[in-house]
Amino acid sequence: MNNLLLIEKALLESLSSGARSVTELTAELGVSDLIIKNTISSLIELDLIIFNGEKYELSSTKLASMQIKAKDDQIMSDEIYHAIDDLRVFKLSLDSFEEKLLQIHLKNFNDFVTGIRNKTRLNQDADPKVRLVDQRVFAIGVSRYGDLLKSSLMI
């Protein structure tokens, strides 16, 4: 799953909710039908999706063996990182008090997002379906600058 392009992952996530036509996938993902058709061809070659005569659906044999869960959180790929319009990266020196405050704010943010995700799961039938293309993406985390430098040098 980590070797797939962002558009391929998004298409698989869309199909995890059920079979869809090219038109439905185009509306769901907000990209042109040409991109959808090319992505479908790629995923059919990988045996990740099949055409059932009317719509495309996940190929249960290959996906089961890969244990793909498209709705689960995944490691953020470079594609997502570069696609976020409002991404800010800061390098700061923090004292121990500021470090504790940062950890509290990160926990509060994580609790906020978890609460929204749990509410969404509980009220799935009450809320109107939001297209995948309209969902929000959050990237948040803290690392030591030295660790980032080391990981950027790893091949």
Provide structural commentary.
A hairpin with a 4-residue loop joins strand 1 and strand 2 (56-58). This protein has 7 helices and 2 strands; from the N terminus they run αααββαααα. The chain is elongated and about 60 Å long. The chain starts with 5 loop residues before the first helix and ends with a helix. Helices cover 52% and strands 4% of the residues. It is mostly helical and 155 residues long. It folds into 2 domains: 1-71, Arc Repressor Mutant, subunit A; 84-155, no CATH class.
Topology as H/E string?
HHHEEHHHH
Strands side by side in the biggest sheet? 1-2
Strand content: under 5%
Overall domain count: 2
Alpha carbon gyration radius: 19 Å
What tags apply to this protein structure?
Arc Repressor Mutant, subunit A; 155 residues; 2 domains; mainly alpha; 2 strands
